[in-house]
Amino acid sequence: MKSLKEIYADLREIRYYYSKREVFENGPVQSSLREKVERYNQAMRDAPARLYDLYISLYIQNNSQAALSYDWDFSPDYIKQLNRLLCEYLQKNL
């Protein structure tokens, strides 16, 4: 089982992957990061709707927690709590 620290690190890499997606998908070398992205995306397929939306908004669409709290009209602390729930969900389902 991965630690929460490892999951946070993986999510930062996934965010970077999606911010530079063309480089990773069109590059000459098969990236192990692409495999990690697929593993996490697979785990999120059965996630509760709120956590799924959070994953897409933060990590695939590359939004910050502050920007998302503004867009969703929630406090930054609430978004932080949701992100923690997301990481705990991933910890159980990877």
Average pLDDT taken over every residue: 94
Radius of gyration of CA atoms, rounded to a whole number: 13 Å
Number of helical elements: 6
Please write the string of helix (H) and strand (E) elements.
HHHHHH
**Coarse morphology:** globular
Calculate the terminal CA-CA distance, rounded to whole Å. 8 Å
Helix content bin? over 70%
Q: How many runs of DSSP E, i.e. beta strands?
A: 0
Oligomer: single chain
Helix-strand makeup class: mainly alpha
| Fraction of residues in β-strands | under 5%
Please outline the major beta sheet: none
Low-confidence stretches: none
Task: Furnish the topology, listing elements before pairings.
Blueprint: H1 4-19, H2 21-26, H3 32-44, H4 49-60, H5 65-72, H6 76-93
Helix pairs in contact: 1-3, 4-6, 5-6
